[in-house]
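Board work, copied verbatim: Alanine--tRNA ligase
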Amino acid sequence: KYMTSDEIREKFLQFFEQKNHKKLPSSPLVPSDPQLMFTVAGMVPFKPIFWGKVEPTHTMITTCQKCIRTNDIENVGKTARHQTFFEMLGNFSFGEYFKKEAIPMAWEFLTKVLEMPEEKLWPSVYIEDNEAYEIWKKIVPEERIMKFDKSENWWGPVGPTGPCGPSSEIYFDTGFTDDCPDVENCTPACDCGRFVEIWNIVFTEYYAKEDGSFEPLARKNIDTGAGLERIVAAIQGVKTNFDTDLFKEIIEKIENTLNVKYGKNSKTDTSIKVIADHARAVSFIIAEGILPSNEGRGYVLRRILRRSIRHANLLGTKTAFFSKIIDSVIEKYEKIYPELIEKQDFIKKIVNAEEERFLQTLEKGLERLNNIIKKGKISGADAFELYDTYGFPFDITEEIAEEKNIPVDKDEYLKLMKEQKERARKATGNKEYAKSNKAYKKVGDDLKTTEFTGYNSLNETEKV
Ligand code: ATP
Ligand code: MG
Ligand code: MG
Ligand code: MG
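↓ predict structure ↓
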């Protein structure tokens, strides 16, 4: 019997606790950092420490962090290794240990605790990072150490200046070569999917300055991110993250609810994976109080939810189903993330309302889209109409266009969106103006004064 995801998560945290790390609970998906939409990595809650703005209470920390990555939405269901919601395991050092400790610890955990076969692990280092290379050389044969450039093995700075540094990653050889065009020469540099990046250690050792130069940091930090879903897939010997025990009950629930079978047909599987992934993301996002809306986090939620409803439609389900899938997500995670069970009713209520709303226009929208497709292309105006009249987030239109192999004019769509926002802003501006006008007038009347400054302050607010 294989190791379960719960055991692997627990073993990771225990391993680093035994190595004197303080175990902290996951921070929220909605970060306190106003510049970030969601927590995208385990290091996000510690940003002020990395930036040197706050002194750490603990200099060695381990966590399992809930993450959402919107940049991976399109990958979901297509690659084996991407989710929108996933858990990132991490060990962090703030000025305590560095490369020569962090690398062997990662190795010990993977090969001794999880007992991964050594020959299946391929490290990578930044091409100029001889220090990391020398450390790996003592651990694995040189043929297996990859040297990559900044696009792969470098982190930061976020913005023009700030902390940054090289990274070292560990790839797992899944042995699945069916999609490889050149099996003989396949290494982690090949993107056939055989090698999966499971672990990333960032060596935050420089400060990028305005003039483009790097200054060594006084306090060098370690930031590790290891994807739980990917490690579990490696340990359980399955081809995709969706075939792990993390998704088993959720996918079974989708099979039963939508009356479909997983593992028979790749198109069906993609839809099932999208729904399974999105059900997790939706549950965790709503649990933090985010509601579907047309902007910001709420719009990410709406896009994710509507994309899954469209995939269910593809699978032949035209009625509300989503809250049933939510049940299986909550069951799977309630012990680790009790916020799900606390917010259970709320999550389902929101999901039901949004689903009902989208189902009112989905069929008609698909019909309209089918007519548009006959023209051989989707114009920006078409995409905008689908959004505005039928509530189709652009992702859906784009995904369908891709399936039909026809172009869609994104630039024109974005231009029309911008114009609409502008109009909406002016319209609400006027409404606000009228409302405020009344309110201000009332204040003026109440004060029985002729010195009425309401309009001036209104102009001030309008500037913002
Ligand atoms: P990839 O190159 O595969 O997209 P990444 O380099 O973007 O991954 P990192 O930013 O290095 O990922 O994040 C650290 C780790 O988190 C990765 O090594 C991986 O194990 C995990 N991870 C990253 N993105 C995802 C995702 N979308 N779904 C599941 N796990 C992920
Ligand atoms: Mg990525
Ligand atoms: Mg990568
Ligand atoms: Mg990486």
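The beta strands are 22-23, 60-68, 85-94, 121-126, 146-148, 154-155, 162-173, 195-208, 214-227.
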